[in-house]
Amino acid sequence: MGFNRVSISTKIYQTLFRRTSMFTLTIVVGALFFERAFDESTEYIFNRINAGKQYKDLKKQLAQRAAKEE
Amino acid sequence: MATLVSRASKQALLRVHSSIIHQKANLSFKNLSKGKKWAVAAIGTLTAGGVGLAVALNTAVLASDLTLHPPKYPWDHAGMLSTLDRASVRRGYQVYKQVCAACHSLEFMYYRNLVGEIMEEDEAKAEAAEIMVVDGPNDQGLMFERPGKLSDKFPNPYPNDEAARAANNGALPPDLTFIVNARHGGENYLFSILTGYCDPPAGVEVREGLHYNPYFPGGSIAMAQALYNEIIEYDDGTPATTSQLAKDVCTFLRWVAEPEHDTRKRMGLKALMIFSVLLAATYYMKRAKWSSLKTRKIAFKPR
């Protein structure tokens, strides 16, 4: 194994986790992205399960009915 | 002599077979002899059986158990992650307003609770404006009536419980805000009550002013059958059959009793997903931390 060849996990460790300052920054920024992604995906699953039953669907129906009456 | 005995016993007691002393606790079930295993198993079975028998013997047989138990219906919102069908809740509100509200109050409901849940704000304002509310005092110190606002409660059909009893042959129509949670069987029970009216079987006498309903404890209920086919007309054109009316009003009452229902299930999904990841991570961490402790050997070598 050559001296200059560093595996990708070593590189990640050295740049992101090694120093406490970078480690903290990684956690803060990671949390930001993780929460966004997690919320989006769970909302997507939940809305898929309950398609057509929630208030936003009823709201569309009500608007359609109001447009038809006019 | 005494020193000789003392020395001999000391040597006998302190004799070590090898250079390492093994300490071993023989408390595990695995290390018991076959007979002891059988004995422990028998004692366990007998204890569990005895407790079960005692519980069974002490469970009272209630006369109210002789009522008909409601079947479980496949509600739209029964699933662990299923929200309430808002279109059904909205129809149920219509049923409540035009049928149930004649006798039953919804004490803890405000018109603002409808906004963004089953109707838009301007529609809810129009709903509220249909009722008259006593407000005041004005600058002359007099109470006055004004059209309802979003901040007003749903109107109570009777001024107090005594008036309600007097108007209903002595029976008090219960408040419906939490009725779904307040009755065993919840929506299933309510649906069965609303659709279960029938002629009393031979030999059962129903007093004057009461009605026969096999799902009601005791069988005699003061409320008459309230829902019939086409008793109201839905604004979304759904055929208003008795069972449709009952289903919608039960869904509506579930929403009234549990307005946080949908949010709760949404948070439940998120919590289950995040905690399953955390649980796996915690388990891995525990194994990692304990691996060094568990593989460590402690040797005591007396010289």
Report on the architecture of this protein.
The complex is a heterodimer of chains A (70) and B (303). Chain A has a single domain, classed as Up-down Bundle (Single alpha-helices involved in coiled-coils or other helix-helix interfaces). The model of chain A has no long low-confidence stretch (mean pLDDT 91). Chain A is built from 3 helices and no strands. With 70 residues, chain A is mainly alpha-helical. The N and C termini of chain A lie far apart (78 Å). In chain B, strands 1-2 form a two-stranded antiparallel sheet. Chain B has a two-stranded antiparallel sheet with strand order 3-4. Helix content of chain B is 43%, strand content 4%. The longest helix of chain B has 34 residues. Chain B is elongated. Chain B is mainly alpha-helical and 303 residues long. Chain B has 9 helices and 4 strands. Among the domains of chain B are: 164 residues, Cytochrome Bc1 Complex, Chain D, domain 2 (Orthogonal Bundle), CATH 1.10.760.10; 42 residues, no CATH class. The interface between A and B is medium-sized, with 17 and 24 residues. Chain A: One of its GO terms (biological process) is mitochondrial electron transport, ubiquinol to cytochrome c. Chain A: This is Complex III subunit 9. Chain A: It is found in: Mitochondrion inner membrane. Chain A: Belongs to the UQCR10/QCR9 family. Chain A: It is a single-pass membrane protein.
